[in-house]
Design a protein that fits this description.
The chain is globular and about 50 Å long. It is an all-alpha fold and 140 residues long. The protein has one domain.
């Protein structure tokens, strides 16, 4: 129950951070990805700052007996780099570069009412559902 109660304020904090940093602005993101033109390096500092804060909090969290908002820690079982991981990263990168959004900032930006963002989020959801459908149909 604590995790459900914490979801809204933590999501709000995340959204405020995305808007404040410019991560929800596709023009800023595309400017960061345009390394041969008018490159805007500011998002590198946003990402670097996020990695530093995560690293410190992650080390602190692992020293605790259990997570604050869950019954136990959940870590990925697979540690190898495989074809689906590489393919997914490539598709994600192409979508990020063409659309100027990754999933979190797109959902935050959808709240501003731009129909182009709604279209992007709808296409993202269709892509997720299509992948799940194909995954269920494929032999294991």
């Amino acid at each position: 129950m604590k995790s459900i109660a914490a979801a809204f304020p933590l999501g709000l904090l995340f959204g405020i951070g995305l808007v404040t940093s410019g991560m929800s602005n596709p023009a800023k993101v595309i400017g960061f990805l345009d390394i041969t033109g008018q490159w805007d390096p500011s998002l590198a500092f946003v990402m670097g700052g996020a990695v530093i804060v995560f690293g410190m909090l992650y080390r602190f969290a692992l020293r605790q007996q259990k997570p604050v908002l869950a019954a136990a820690y959940s870590f990925p079982d697979r540690k190898q780099v495989d074809t689906p991981l590489i393919a997914g990263a490539l598709v994600f990168g192409v979508g990020w570069g063409l659309g100027g959004f990754c999933p979190g900032p797109a959902i935050v930006s959808a709240g501003f009412g731009d129909p182009r963002v709604w279209l992007f989020v709808a296409a993202m959801i269709v892509g997720i559902l299509l992948f799940r459908f194909v995954l269920r149909r494929s032999p294991s």
